[in-house]
Amino acid sequence: MVSVGFTDMPLPEPSAEAAEPRRSWALGLRRGAACKCPNCGASPVFAGFLRVRETCSACGHALGSYRADDAPPYFTIFIVGHVIVAAMLVVERMVPMPMWAQAALWVPATLVLTFALMRPVKGAVLGVMWANRTFG
Length: 136
Hints:
Distance between the termini: 30 Å
Order of helices and strands: EEHHHH
Helix content: 40-55%
Number of strands: 2
Number of helices: 4
Largest sheet: 2 strands, antiparallel
């Protein structure tokens, strides 16, 4: 313990984690959204559609220790909802369509956008967890 001078309150010793270099959120987001390992950016982070690899094949980083849980679906729903609702309002103003045509247009658009964003959003969440050194 280190003392603080005029008081006798001890300060904690710096941890080993404090000695490690800081990790950038932007770098983690960029590598994760590209579905690459957030640590090295070289190998894929997913073994299946959404299953995270246990370890990175390039750098050996333990990817299986990150537990994203409910954050990626929440962010995906948030993004898709805002994009689709805004597009629905614009299209409805420009071209009035019957309800069946609206359903035929927006249901597939919602599904396509959701499936297109699921992997990049989960990768980005893993990248932020890597930057914050958050493990499950």
